[in-house]
Design goal:
The protein is mainly alpha-helical. It contains 15 helices and two strands. The chain is 72% helix and 1% strand. The longest helix is centred in the middle third of the chain and has 111 residues, at 212-322.
Length: 478
Protein backbone atom coordinates (compact mmCIF):
# COMPACT_ATOMS: atom_id res chain seq x y z
CA UNK A 1 0.00 0.00 0.00
CA UNK A 2 1.39 3.41 -0.97
CA UNK A 3 1.51 6.36 1.41
CA UNK A 4 -1.43 7.91 -0.39
CA UNK A 5 -3.67 4.89 0.13
CA UNK A 6 -6.15 4.64 2.95
CA UNK A 7 -4.93 2.95 6.14
CA UNK A 8 -8.03 3.33 8.26
CA UNK A 9 -11.22 5.36 7.87
CA UNK A 10 -14.23 6.62 9.67
CA UNK A 11 -16.52 8.85 7.67
CA UNK A 12 -14.17 10.49 5.07
CA UNK A 13 -10.93 10.75 7.12
CA UNK A 14 -7.75 8.95 6.02
CA UNK A 15 -4.41 7.96 7.53
CA UNK A 16 -1.69 6.92 5.10
CA UNK A 17 0.58 3.96 5.67
CA UNK A 18 3.53 6.28 6.29
CA UNK A 19 1.62 8.25 8.94
CA UNK A 20 0.41 5.04 10.50
CA UNK A 21 4.03 3.86 10.83
CA UNK A 22 4.88 7.10 12.69
CA UNK A 23 1.98 6.54 15.09
CA UNK A 24 2.97 2.89 15.49
CA UNK A 25 6.54 3.91 16.41
CA UNK A 26 5.20 6.36 18.98
CA UNK A 27 2.94 3.67 20.38
CA UNK A 28 5.94 1.37 20.87
CA UNK A 29 7.89 4.11 22.69
CA UNK A 30 4.92 4.81 24.95
CA UNK A 31 4.57 1.14 25.91
CA UNK A 32 8.25 1.04 26.87
CA UNK A 33 7.79 4.22 28.93
CA UNK A 34 4.70 2.77 30.61
CA UNK A 35 6.64 -0.36 31.55
CA UNK A 36 9.37 1.87 33.02
CA UNK A 37 6.88 3.86 35.12
CA UNK A 38 5.05 0.77 36.38
CA UNK A 39 8.20 -1.17 37.33
CA UNK A 40 10.48 1.66 38.57
CA UNK A 41 10.54 2.55 42.27
CA UNK A 42 11.40 6.12 41.33
CA UNK A 43 7.80 6.77 40.30
CA UNK A 44 5.11 7.39 42.91
CA UNK A 45 1.78 5.65 43.31
CA UNK A 46 -0.02 8.63 41.73
CA UNK A 47 2.37 8.57 38.76
CA UNK A 48 1.83 4.82 38.29
CA UNK A 49 -1.92 5.42 38.37
CA UNK A 50 -1.68 8.27 35.86
CA UNK A 51 0.13 6.13 33.26
CA UNK A 52 -2.99 3.92 33.05
CA UNK A 53 -5.37 6.77 32.13
CA UNK A 54 -7.12 6.21 28.77
CA UNK A 55 -9.41 9.24 28.66
CA UNK A 56 -9.09 12.90 29.50
CA UNK A 57 -12.14 12.49 31.73
CA UNK A 58 -10.00 10.33 34.02
CA UNK A 59 -7.22 12.95 33.82
CA UNK A 60 -9.65 15.75 34.69
CA UNK A 61 -11.19 13.79 37.58
CA UNK A 62 -7.69 13.09 39.00
CA UNK A 63 -6.81 16.79 39.17
CA UNK A 64 -10.19 17.66 40.63
CA UNK A 65 -9.72 15.12 43.43
CA UNK A 66 -6.11 16.18 43.97
CA UNK A 67 -7.11 19.82 44.25
CA UNK A 68 -9.91 19.00 46.74
CA UNK A 69 -7.52 16.91 48.85
CA UNK A 70 -4.95 19.74 48.84
CA UNK A 71 -7.57 22.23 50.08
CA UNK A 72 -8.64 19.90 52.89
CA UNK A 73 -5.00 19.44 53.90
CA UNK A 74 -4.33 23.22 53.92
CA UNK A 75 -7.37 23.94 56.07
CA UNK A 76 -6.14 21.56 58.78
CA UNK A 77 -2.57 22.98 58.98
CA UNK A 78 -0.84 26.19 60.00
CA UNK A 79 -1.30 29.54 58.40
CA UNK A 80 0.79 30.60 55.42
CA UNK A 81 -0.43 27.88 53.09
CA UNK A 82 -2.79 30.13 51.15
CA UNK A 83 -0.26 31.25 48.53
CA UNK A 84 0.89 27.70 47.91
CA UNK A 85 -2.73 26.54 47.62
CA UNK A 86 -3.48 29.21 45.01
CA UNK A 87 -0.41 28.20 43.00
CA UNK A 88 -1.46 24.57 43.13
CA UNK A 89 -4.98 25.43 42.01
CA UNK A 90 -3.52 27.51 39.16
CA UNK A 91 -1.30 24.60 38.12
CA UNK A 92 -4.24 22.16 38.21
CA UNK A 93 -6.33 24.55 36.11
CA UNK A 94 -3.49 24.83 33.56
CA UNK A 95 -3.17 21.04 33.36
CA UNK A 96 -6.93 20.56 32.84
CA UNK A 97 -7.10 23.39 30.29
CA UNK A 98 -4.16 22.03 28.31
CA UNK A 99 -5.67 18.53 28.27
CA UNK A 100 -8.90 19.98 26.87
CA UNK A 101 -7.02 21.78 24.06
CA UNK A 102 -4.83 18.78 23.26
CA UNK A 103 -7.68 16.26 23.21
CA UNK A 104 -8.69 16.84 19.54
CA UNK A 105 -5.32 15.60 18.22
CA UNK A 106 -5.30 12.52 20.44
CA UNK A 107 -8.99 11.85 19.70
CA UNK A 108 -8.24 11.97 15.96
CA UNK A 109 -5.51 9.38 16.38
CA UNK A 110 -7.73 7.20 18.58
CA UNK A 111 -10.69 7.44 16.20
CA UNK A 112 -8.91 7.08 12.87
CA UNK A 113 -5.84 4.98 13.71
CA UNK A 114 -7.41 2.47 16.10
CA UNK A 115 -6.20 0.63 18.12
CA UNK A 116 -3.45 3.26 18.44
CA UNK A 117 -3.72 6.35 20.62
CA UNK A 118 -5.32 4.83 23.69
CA UNK A 119 -2.14 4.96 25.79
CA UNK A 120 -1.34 8.60 24.90
CA UNK A 121 -3.56 10.08 27.65
CA UNK A 122 -1.57 8.16 30.26
CA UNK A 123 1.75 9.37 28.83
CA UNK A 124 0.65 13.03 28.98
CA UNK A 125 -0.84 12.55 32.45
CA UNK A 126 2.45 11.28 33.88
CA UNK A 127 4.30 14.45 32.79
CA UNK A 128 1.88 16.70 34.67
CA UNK A 129 1.89 14.53 37.79
CA UNK A 130 5.71 14.31 37.79
CA UNK A 131 6.04 18.08 37.31
CA UNK A 132 3.60 18.98 40.10
CA UNK A 133 5.44 20.44 43.16
CA UNK A 134 4.49 22.21 46.32
CA UNK A 135 4.77 25.57 44.58
CA UNK A 136 3.01 24.45 41.42
CA UNK A 137 4.46 23.24 38.12
CA UNK A 138 8.01 24.23 37.25
CA UNK A 139 7.64 27.56 35.48
CA UNK A 140 9.85 26.82 32.46
CA UNK A 141 7.95 23.60 31.75
CA UNK A 142 4.63 25.38 31.97
CA UNK A 143 5.95 28.14 29.71
CA UNK A 144 6.82 25.57 27.03
CA UNK A 145 3.45 23.81 27.41
CA UNK A 146 1.61 27.12 27.25
CA UNK A 147 3.40 28.01 24.01
CA UNK A 148 2.36 24.66 22.54
CA UNK A 149 -1.22 25.10 23.71
CA UNK A 150 -1.43 28.58 22.21
CA UNK A 151 -0.69 27.10 18.79
CA UNK A 152 -3.31 24.35 18.99
CA UNK A 153 -6.35 24.89 16.73
CA UNK A 154 -9.77 24.80 18.36
CA UNK A 155 -11.45 21.45 18.85
CA UNK A 156 -14.38 22.24 16.53
CA UNK A 157 -12.01 23.31 13.75
CA UNK A 158 -10.92 19.74 13.00
CA UNK A 159 -14.43 18.32 12.78
CA UNK A 160 -15.57 21.07 10.38
CA UNK A 161 -12.67 21.24 7.91
CA UNK A 162 -11.06 17.78 7.93
CA UNK A 163 -13.61 15.73 6.04
CA UNK A 164 -12.39 14.98 2.53
CA UNK A 165 -9.66 13.10 0.67
CA UNK A 166 -8.06 16.28 -0.67
CA UNK A 167 -4.38 17.14 -1.06
CA UNK A 168 -4.59 19.65 1.80
CA UNK A 169 -6.47 17.14 3.95
CA UNK A 170 -3.74 14.55 3.36
CA UNK A 171 -1.07 17.09 4.31
CA UNK A 172 -3.01 17.94 7.44
CA UNK A 173 -3.23 14.33 8.55
CA UNK A 174 0.54 13.96 8.03
CA UNK A 175 1.17 17.01 10.23
CA UNK A 176 -1.23 15.70 12.88
CA UNK A 177 0.64 12.39 12.97
CA UNK A 178 3.96 14.27 13.23
CA UNK A 179 2.65 16.61 15.96
CA UNK A 180 1.29 13.65 17.88
CA UNK A 181 4.59 11.75 17.68
CA UNK A 182 6.65 14.85 18.56
CA UNK A 183 4.58 15.85 21.56
CA UNK A 184 4.47 12.32 22.97
CA UNK A 185 8.28 12.15 22.58
CA UNK A 186 8.53 15.52 24.36
CA UNK A 187 6.35 14.24 27.24
CA UNK A 188 8.40 11.07 27.67
CA UNK A 189 11.77 12.87 27.63
CA UNK A 190 10.53 15.68 29.87
CA UNK A 191 9.12 13.18 32.39
CA UNK A 192 12.43 11.25 32.49
CA UNK A 193 14.62 14.34 32.89
CA UNK A 194 12.36 16.02 35.38
CA UNK A 195 12.13 12.82 37.42
CA UNK A 196 15.85 12.14 37.19
CA UNK A 197 17.52 15.17 38.88
CA UNK A 198 15.32 18.07 39.80
CA UNK A 199 14.94 21.51 38.20
CA UNK A 200 18.66 22.08 37.65
CA UNK A 201 18.95 18.99 35.49
CA UNK A 202 15.84 20.18 33.63
CA UNK A 203 17.41 23.58 32.84
CA UNK A 204 20.60 21.86 31.81
CA UNK A 205 18.69 19.54 29.51
CA UNK A 206 16.97 22.46 27.87
CA UNK A 207 20.35 24.04 26.97
CA UNK A 208 21.97 21.11 25.17
CA UNK A 209 21.73 20.37 21.42
CA UNK A 210 18.84 18.05 20.58
CA UNK A 211 17.47 18.95 23.99
CA UNK A 212 13.88 18.81 25.15
CA UNK A 213 13.58 22.46 24.19
CA UNK A 214 14.42 21.51 20.61
CA UNK A 215 11.73 18.84 20.74
CA UNK A 216 9.24 21.34 22.09
CA UNK A 217 10.20 23.82 19.36
CA UNK A 218 9.71 21.15 16.73
CA UNK A 219 6.25 20.36 18.13
CA UNK A 220 5.41 24.06 18.11
CA UNK A 221 6.55 24.37 14.51
CA UNK A 222 4.46 21.37 13.39
CA UNK A 223 1.40 22.68 15.22
CA UNK A 224 1.98 26.04 13.56
CA UNK A 225 1.91 24.28 10.20
CA UNK A 226 -1.33 22.59 11.26
CA UNK A 227 -2.89 25.94 11.96
CA UNK A 228 -1.73 27.22 8.60
CA UNK A 229 -3.14 24.16 6.82
CA UNK A 230 -6.38 24.59 8.72
CA UNK A 231 -6.60 28.14 7.43
CA UNK A 232 -5.98 26.93 3.89
CA UNK A 233 -8.58 24.21 4.28
CA UNK A 234 -11.02 26.76 5.59
CA UNK A 235 -10.35 28.90 2.53
CA UNK A 236 -10.85 25.86 0.33
CA UNK A 237 -14.13 25.00 2.04
CA UNK A 238 -15.29 28.59 1.87
CA UNK A 239 -14.57 28.63 -1.87
CA UNK A 240 -16.36 25.31 -2.23
CA UNK A 241 -19.32 26.70 -0.33
CA UNK A 242 -19.34 29.78 -2.59
CA UNK A 243 -19.44 27.54 -5.65
CA UNK A 244 -22.22 25.50 -4.09
CA UNK A 245 -24.12 28.66 -3.24
CA UNK A 246 -23.71 29.91 -6.81
CA UNK A 247 -24.98 26.57 -8.10
CA UNK A 248 -27.88 26.71 -5.65
CA UNK A 249 -28.59 30.27 -6.74
CA UNK A 250 -28.77 29.15 -10.36
CA UNK A 251 -30.95 26.20 -9.37
CA UNK A 252 -33.20 28.54 -7.40
CA UNK A 253 -33.45 30.83 -10.41
CA UNK A 254 -34.35 27.88 -12.61
CA UNK A 255 -36.82 26.73 -9.98
CA UNK A 256 -38.30 30.20 -9.89
CA UNK A 257 -38.90 30.10 -13.65
CA UNK A 258 -40.35 26.63 -13.33
CA UNK A 259 -42.63 27.78 -10.52
CA UNK A 260 -43.76 30.71 -12.65
CA UNK A 261 -44.52 28.32 -15.50
CA UNK A 262 -46.33 26.00 -13.10
CA UNK A 263 -48.25 28.97 -11.74
CA UNK A 264 -49.41 29.85 -15.26
CA UNK A 265 -50.32 26.23 -15.89
CA UNK A 266 -52.25 26.13 -12.62
CA UNK A 267 -54.07 29.28 -13.66
CA UNK A 268 -55.04 27.63 -16.93
CA UNK A 269 -56.12 24.51 -15.05
CA UNK A 270 -58.11 26.70 -12.66
CA UNK A 271 -59.95 28.24 -15.61
CA UNK A 272 -60.56 24.79 -17.08
CA UNK A 273 -61.86 23.57 -13.73
CA UNK A 274 -64.19 26.58 -13.55
CA UNK A 275 -65.48 25.75 -17.02
CA UNK A 276 -65.93 22.11 -16.05
CA UNK A 277 -67.68 23.22 -12.87
CA UNK A 278 -70.15 25.26 -14.91
CA UNK A 279 -70.71 22.32 -17.26
CA UNK A 280 -71.25 20.02 -14.29
CA UNK A 281 -73.74 22.46 -12.84
CA UNK A 282 -75.61 22.49 -16.14
CA UNK A 283 -75.54 18.69 -16.28
CA UNK A 284 -76.68 18.59 -12.67
CA UNK A 285 -79.67 20.74 -13.51
CA UNK A 286 -80.44 18.53 -16.52
CA UNK A 287 -80.08 15.41 -14.36
CA UNK A 288 -82.34 17.01 -11.80
CA UNK A 289 -84.98 17.40 -14.48
CA UNK A 290 -84.44 13.81 -15.62
CA UNK A 291 -84.66 12.63 -12.03
CA UNK A 292 -88.02 14.34 -11.66
CA UNK A 293 -89.14 12.73 -14.92
CA UNK A 294 -88.02 9.33 -13.67
CA UNK A 295 -89.96 9.89 -10.44
CA UNK A 296 -93.07 10.72 -12.41
CA UNK A 297 -92.61 7.69 -14.67
CA UNK A 298 -92.02 5.43 -11.69
CA UNK A 299 -95.15 6.69 -9.96
CA UNK A 300 -97.14 6.10 -13.13
CA UNK A 301 -95.72 2.59 -13.49
CA UNK A 302 -96.61 1.84 -9.86
CA UNK A 303 -100.16 3.07 -10.41
CA UNK A 304 -100.48 0.98 -13.57
CA UNK A 305 -99.07 -2.06 -11.77
CA UNK A 306 -101.61 -1.63 -8.97
CA UNK A 307 -104.45 -1.21 -11.47
CA UNK A 308 -103.38 -4.30 -13.43
CA UNK A 309 -103.06 -6.33 -10.23
CA UNK A 310 -106.50 -5.20 -9.13
CA UNK A 311 -107.93 -6.11 -12.55
CA UNK A 312 -106.28 -9.55 -12.37
CA UNK A 313 -107.81 -10.15 -8.95
CA UNK A 314 -111.29 -9.21 -10.27
CA UNK A 315 -110.89 -11.54 -13.23
CA UNK A 316 -109.75 -14.40 -10.97
CA UNK A 317 -112.66 -13.81 -8.62
CA UNK A 318 -115.02 -14.11 -11.61
CA UNK A 319 -113.37 -17.33 -12.82
CA UNK A 320 -113.24 -19.04 -9.41
CA UNK A 321 -117.00 -19.88 -9.34
CA UNK A 322 -116.84 -21.18 -12.92
CA UNK A 323 -114.27 -23.72 -11.68
CA UNK A 324 -116.46 -24.71 -8.82
CA UNK A 325 -113.91 -23.43 -6.30
CA UNK A 326 -115.92 -20.81 -4.42
CA UNK A 327 -114.95 -22.42 -1.12
CA UNK A 328 -111.38 -23.35 -2.19
CA UNK A 329 -108.48 -22.14 0.02
CA UNK A 330 -104.84 -22.06 -1.09
CA UNK A 331 -103.74 -22.38 2.53
CA UNK A 332 -105.87 -25.50 3.11
CA UNK A 333 -104.47 -26.92 -0.10
CA UNK A 334 -100.88 -26.49 1.17
CA UNK A 335 -101.80 -27.97 4.57
CA UNK A 336 -103.28 -31.02 2.86
CA UNK A 337 -99.97 -31.57 1.04
CA UNK A 338 -98.04 -31.30 4.31
CA UNK A 339 -100.31 -33.81 6.07
CA UNK A 340 -100.03 -36.28 3.20
CA UNK A 341 -96.21 -35.98 3.17
CA UNK A 342 -96.00 -36.53 6.94
CA UNK A 343 -98.38 -39.49 6.77
CA UNK A 344 -96.29 -41.03 4.00
CA UNK A 345 -93.15 -40.75 6.18
CA UNK A 346 -94.78 -42.20 9.30
CA UNK A 347 -96.79 -45.11 7.84
CA UNK A 348 -95.30 -48.16 9.60
CA UNK A 349 -96.80 -50.74 7.29
CA UNK A 350 -95.71 -48.99 4.11
CA UNK A 351 -92.22 -48.29 5.49
CA UNK A 352 -91.52 -51.79 6.71
CA UNK A 353 -87.99 -52.98 6.05
CA UNK A 354 -89.10 -55.88 3.91
CA UNK A 355 -90.67 -53.60 1.27
CA UNK A 356 -89.03 -51.50 -1.38
CA UNK A 357 -88.94 -47.78 -0.59
CA UNK A 358 -88.81 -45.02 -3.16
CA UNK A 359 -86.33 -42.94 -1.14
CA UNK A 360 -82.58 -42.27 -0.96
CA UNK A 361 -80.49 -44.29 -3.43
CA UNK A 362 -83.58 -46.02 -4.88
CA UNK A 363 -85.18 -42.67 -5.68
CA UNK A 364 -81.92 -41.36 -7.17
CA UNK A 365 -81.68 -44.47 -9.34
CA UNK A 366 -85.24 -44.01 -10.54
CA UNK A 367 -84.71 -40.35 -11.43
CA UNK A 368 -81.59 -41.33 -13.39
CA UNK A 369 -83.39 -43.87 -15.57
CA UNK A 370 -83.90 -43.20 -19.29
CA UNK A 371 -87.69 -42.65 -19.23
CA UNK A 372 -87.58 -40.17 -16.40
CA UNK A 373 -84.64 -38.23 -17.92
CA UNK A 374 -86.35 -38.07 -21.35
CA UNK A 375 -89.48 -36.56 -19.76
CA UNK A 376 -87.51 -34.23 -17.45
CA UNK A 377 -85.32 -32.75 -20.20
CA UNK A 378 -87.89 -32.65 -23.02
CA UNK A 379 -88.27 -29.22 -24.68
CA UNK A 380 -91.78 -30.12 -25.88
CA UNK A 381 -94.96 -30.94 -24.02
CA UNK A 382 -94.56 -34.39 -22.57
CA UNK A 383 -96.59 -36.52 -20.14
CA UNK A 384 -95.13 -38.93 -17.57
CA UNK A 385 -97.64 -41.26 -15.88
CA UNK A 386 -96.43 -43.11 -12.79
CA UNK A 387 -98.51 -45.95 -11.41
CA UNK A 388 -97.66 -47.93 -8.31
CA UNK A 389 -99.49 -50.75 -6.54
CA UNK A 390 -98.79 -51.64 -2.93
CA UNK A 391 -97.93 -55.17 -1.87
CA UNK A 392 -101.05 -57.27 -1.35
CA UNK A 393 -100.17 -57.62 2.34
CA UNK A 394 -100.63 -53.87 2.85
CA UNK A 395 -104.36 -53.56 3.33
CA UNK A 396 -104.95 -50.84 5.88
CA UNK A 397 -102.96 -48.04 4.16
CA UNK A 398 -104.46 -45.69 1.58
CA UNK A 399 -101.01 -44.39 0.68
CA UNK A 400 -98.89 -45.51 -2.28
CA UNK A 401 -95.24 -46.60 -2.05
CA UNK A 402 -94.49 -44.66 -5.28
CA UNK A 403 -95.81 -41.33 -3.95
CA UNK A 404 -92.35 -40.14 -2.64
CA UNK A 405 -91.42 -39.47 -6.28
CA UNK A 406 -94.15 -36.86 -6.66
CA UNK A 407 -93.69 -35.48 -3.11
CA UNK A 408 -89.93 -35.01 -3.63
CA UNK A 409 -90.46 -33.35 -7.02
CA UNK A 410 -92.99 -30.86 -5.57
CA UNK A 411 -90.62 -29.94 -2.72
CA UNK A 412 -87.70 -29.43 -5.13
CA UNK A 413 -89.80 -27.17 -7.41
CA UNK A 414 -90.99 -25.20 -4.39
CA UNK A 415 -87.40 -24.57 -3.14
CA UNK A 416 -85.92 -23.87 -6.59
CA UNK A 417 -84.29 -20.46 -7.05
CA UNK A 418 -85.59 -20.23 -10.63
CA UNK A 419 -89.20 -20.22 -9.35
CA UNK A 420 -90.66 -22.50 -12.07
CA UNK A 421 -94.39 -22.74 -12.65
CA UNK A 422 -95.83 -25.95 -11.19
CA UNK A 423 -99.22 -27.22 -9.95
CA UNK A 424 -100.27 -30.25 -7.90
CA UNK A 425 -103.30 -31.88 -6.29
CA UNK A 426 -103.41 -34.30 -3.38
CA UNK A 427 -106.39 -36.62 -3.53
CA UNK A 428 -108.12 -37.16 -0.21
CA UNK A 429 -108.18 -40.67 1.23
CA UNK A 430 -111.93 -41.00 0.61
CA UNK A 431 -111.47 -40.26 -3.10
CA UNK A 432 -112.31 -37.35 -5.41
CA UNK A 433 -113.38 -36.75 -9.02
CA UNK A 434 -110.84 -35.76 -11.65
CA UNK A 435 -113.03 -32.72 -12.39
CA UNK A 436 -112.16 -31.31 -8.96
CA UNK A 437 -108.44 -32.07 -9.40
CA UNK A 438 -108.33 -30.40 -12.83
CA UNK A 439 -110.20 -27.38 -11.54
CA UNK A 440 -107.71 -26.84 -8.69
CA UNK A 441 -104.71 -27.21 -11.01
CA UNK A 442 -106.24 -24.82 -13.60
CA UNK A 443 -106.79 -22.29 -10.79
CA UNK A 444 -103.12 -22.62 -9.72
CA UNK A 445 -101.96 -22.10 -13.31
CA UNK A 446 -104.08 -18.99 -13.78
CA UNK A 447 -102.91 -17.61 -10.43
CA UNK A 448 -99.23 -17.96 -11.51
CA UNK A 449 -99.77 -16.85 -15.15
CA UNK A 450 -102.08 -13.91 -14.63
CA UNK A 451 -100.89 -12.17 -17.80
CA UNK A 452 -102.98 -14.60 -19.91
CA UNK A 453 -106.09 -13.08 -18.32
CA UNK A 454 -105.19 -9.67 -19.79
CA UNK A 455 -105.88 -10.98 -23.28
CA UNK A 456 -109.59 -10.11 -23.37
CA UNK A 457 -110.65 -12.39 -26.29
CA UNK A 458 -108.74 -15.30 -24.84
CA UNK A 459 -110.12 -14.65 -21.37
CA UNK A 460 -113.72 -14.45 -22.71
CA UNK A 461 -113.26 -17.74 -24.55
CA UNK A 462 -112.00 -19.36 -21.33
CA UNK A 463 -115.04 -18.08 -19.45
CA UNK A 464 -117.40 -19.47 -22.07
CA UNK A 465 -115.79 -22.92 -22.00
CA UNK A 466 -115.72 -23.04 -18.20
CA UNK A 467 -119.35 -21.94 -18.05
CA UNK A 468 -120.34 -24.68 -20.50
CA UNK A 469 -118.35 -27.23 -18.51
CA UNK A 470 -120.02 -26.07 -15.30
CA UNK A 471 -123.52 -26.50 -16.81
CA UNK A 472 -122.56 -29.93 -18.13
CA UNK A 473 -121.31 -31.03 -14.74
CA UNK A 474 -124.53 -29.78 -13.14
CA UNK A 475 -126.67 -31.71 -15.61
CA UNK A 476 -124.61 -34.83 -15.09
CA UNK A 477 -125.02 -34.74 -11.35
CA UNK A 478 -128.78 -34.16 -11.66
Amino acid sequence: MSSSNQATTQGKMYFSEHDLQIINKSEHEQREFKELVVNSKAYSKAEKAAISFHTFEEFDAFWTRANDDKEDFDKSHQRGCGLFSKRYQHAAAQAQSFAKDLSPIIDLVKNFAAPYGGIAVGTVSVLFVVASKKDGFEERLMSVISEIRDRLPGMKLFSHIYNEKHELDMKLQARIASAYQGFIEFCIEASKYYKGGGPRRWFKALGRPNSILDKASRVQAVIGEIRKLCDELLDKNVDHIKQQNESIKQQNESTKHQNESIKQQNEGIKQQNESIKQQNESIKQQNGGKKEQKEVIKNLEDQISRLVTAQDERTLSEIRPLLGLSAFSDENHRDEFTRYSEALDSDEQLNAVVFEHMRGPRLDSFKACKDYQTWSKSEQSCLLILSGVNNESIRSSDLCWLSPVAITMIKELKDSLTKPIYVYYVFPTDGELLYRAFSVMIWQLLHQKREVLRNTPQCDELRTELDALQRYEGCRKS
